[in-house]
Amino acid sequence: MKQNGISLLETVVAATILAGSVMTVCGLSAKSLRSVRLNQEYEKAWDYMDRQLVLIDTAGVEVLTEGTSKSGQFESFDGRIWRWTAQAEETELVGLYDVSMQVEWLSAGRLRQIRCQTRLSGQPMMLDATEASSETTGNQGTGQR
Predict the structure, then answer these.
(1) For residue 106, what pLDDT band results from cuts at 50, 70 and 90?
(2) Given pLDDT bands bounded at 50, 70 and 90, which one contains residue 17?
(3) What pLDDT band is residue 142 in, cutting at 50, 70 and 90?
(4) Would 141 be classed as within a structural domain?
(5) How far is residue 12's CA from residue 25's CA, in Å, rounded to a whole number?
(6) Got the DSSP string for 85-125?
(7) Which domain does 23 fall in, by range?
(8) Which of 23, 33, 97, 119 is most buried by its number of CB atoms within 10 A?
(9) pLDDT-derived band of residue 137, with 50, 70 and 90 as boundaries?
(10) Are the beta carbons of 74 and 81 closer than 8 angstroms?
(11) Count of beta carbons in the 10 Å neighbourhood of residue 45
């Protein structure tokens, strides 16, 4: 006799194959989401480091050379603490400083960190604005516009 339809054994094998493939896809998706979250954290850390370097450059790198190193922290909206440390050493060129900086944070129970080395000039950016405004007031005093 010829049977129409599928047997119980075929159904169990098909269900097992389907469950295995679904589990594999779910595992890969979860790993991908963790990777995206970690990349976002690294991007945020680089952004915080860039902001701090701009502040140091604006105030003048001499604020770092007064002591051994300076440190501080940022707090993000999710309550996570990002700690930074920076130090500077004057190079053989007068007015040029080697600046080392790092940012650390906790992520999933592990300490993560990024490091950066750059060079900054010793003159703060605010002096440029002050010089420009003094040139403008100097020209107004002579009658030139």
Answers:
(1) very high
(2) very high
(3) very low
(4) no
(5) 20
(6) EEEEEE-SSTTEEEEEEEEEEEETTEEEEEEEEEEEESS-T
(7) 8-136
(8) 97
(9) very low
(10) yes
(11) 21
HSE toward the beta carbon, residue 43, CA cutoff 13 A: 6
45 sits in the region (left: phi over 0; alpha: psi -120 to 50; else beta) called alpha
Q: How far apart are CA 130 and CA 94, in angstroms?
A: 22
Cα(74)–Cα(99) distance, integer angstroms: 20
* CA–CA distance, 70 with 113 (Å, rounded to integer): 17
pLDDT digits (tens, 9 = 90+) for 69-82: 888 998 888 888 99
Say if 144 falls within a structural domain.
no
Let me know if residue 142 belongs to a domain. Answer: no
Residue 2 included in any domain:
no
Domain count, the chain: 1
Write down the mean pLDDT value for the chain.
Answer: 81
Instruction: Read off the DSSP letter of residue 49.
Output: H
Looking up tokens 């993560």 gives: 112
H or E stretch covering 74: strand 70-75
Token pair belonging to 34: 């963790």
